[in-house]
Write a structure and sequence with these properties.
- The protein is an alpha+beta fold.
- Helices cover 28% and strands 17% of the residues.
- The radius of gyration is 19 Å and the shape is globular.
């Protein structure tokens, strides 16, 4: 068992044990947080920030959480909706007129947030560097025709989700998604989470470590379907070395380039599990939280090639909602229990090679503390 540091209320001792066991087996460095009623009951970390195990994972260590970032981006949209500045049932083109091109006038905001807009990929994207040009990517999405009739099917919008939601936010507020999040979410909560990372924080970053036996050329991909085939994708594949690059940190890719730790992820998402507030700070009304767990689509996801339930911005799993990132990070919130659980690590795992139950074991341990 590996030593862990930080706060853990006695009834949540199984969470500390689960992290210690994971650090002793699969993990290099990781953090876990559990928030209940908008307050921390577990905030622990341990292990190392580098593959050589020479630098300790500290309280303020940050790492890239990949698609766990989508939870943060979705929250920004829900805040604007709660303020009356964004209508989730309005056409995207009401805020972004150019988006009506190529027969997309009937794509609604909630279609974008629930992965049912029919724009899972950006055509013409050939290099990861193309993702760093916000105007080019959003112009491309505005001009592109949907793959299916919006709202009738779902297909995980792995990279496009952040550009679509982010451009809607930008059109309404005049701010990038990262700026809006920093000013309207992270600052009032005191949350150390960043969508796009400035140079001052580089020294705190724990680089992502590719799965065992793989190199930093390891690339993200959709999982194979039941018959073993993958959805065809000809665009640029994001590799571990891309996600660890300075250019990636500085960019705005709000589906995937968030940086934080379990404490900051759980703190932010606990707002939704706790009727709109955390730590005494209210970001939205109780009613404004409800779209996060109200199902918009249920069925086979064309990209993930598995059954999915999508809400306005989140995956729904029984009584919980949330989402995880490539390599293993995740966050899950339960509005019935007012609990949010987050797990953030630097050691990635490849689900094609082995099962990755690290995050799920943390969540189950947290539920044991509620009994």
């Amino acid at each position: 068992m590996t030593d862990t540091k930080g706060l853990c209320e006695p009834r949540f001792a199984p969470v500390r044990a689960a992290l210690a066991a994971s650090l002793g087996k699969d993990d290099v460095g990781a953090s876990v947080a559990v928030y209940l009623d908008g307050e921390p009951v577990v905030d622990i970390w341990g292990g190392y920030a580098d593959a050589d195990r020479s630098v300790s994972w500290e309280r303020d260590t940050l790492t890239g959480v990949n698609s766990t970032t989508k939870n943060m981006t979705a929250l920004c949209a829900l805040i604007l909706a709660d303020r009356g500045q964004l209508d989730l049932s309005a056409p995207v083109a009401a805020y972004w007129p150019e988006f009506a091109a190529a027969d997309k006038q009937n794509v609604l905001v909630r279609h974008v947030l629930s992965h049912t807009a029919g724009l899972p990929d950006l055509s013409g994207l050939t290099a990861v560097e193309d993702l760093y040009d916000w105007q080019s990517v959003t112009a491309g999405l505005a001009a592109q025709a949907p793959e299916w009739e919006p709202g009738t099917a779902a297909g995980y919008h792995a990279l496009t989700f952040g550009f679509l939601v982010g451009e809607i936010v930008r059109r309404i507020t005049g701010r990038s998604l990262g700026e809006f999040f920093a000013e309207e979410v992270a600052k009032p909560l005191g949350a150390d989470f960043h969508i796009g990372l400035s140079a001052e924080h580089d020294r705190r970053v724990a680089p992502l470590i590719p799965p065992p036996s793989l190199t930093d050329e390891y690339a993200s991909s959709a999982p194979p379907g039941p018959d073993g085939t993958r959805r065809e994708y000809t665009g640029a594949a994001v590799r571990v070395r891309d996600a660890n690059s300075v250019a990636w940190r500085r960019a705005q890719i709000p589906a995937v380039n968030g940086f934080g730790n379990a404490r900051s992820v759980a703190l932010v998402q606990s707002v939704l599990a706790n009727q709109g507030s955390a730590g005494g700070v209210r970001l939205l009304s109780p009613q404004g939280c409800e779209p996060a767990w109200q199902e918009v689509f249920r069925g086979e996801d064309r990209v993930l090639q598995s059954p999915m339930s999508w809400t306005v911005g989140f995956g729904k799993f029984g009584s919980t909602f949330g989402w995880g990132g490539w390599g293993g990070s995740l966050v899950a919130s339960d509005p019935d229990s007012r609990m949010t659980v987050a797990y953030v690590m630097n050691q990635m795992m490849d689900r094609d090679q082995q099962e990755d139950n690290r995050g799920m074991e943390i969540i189950m341990a947290a539920y044991s503390g509620l009994q």
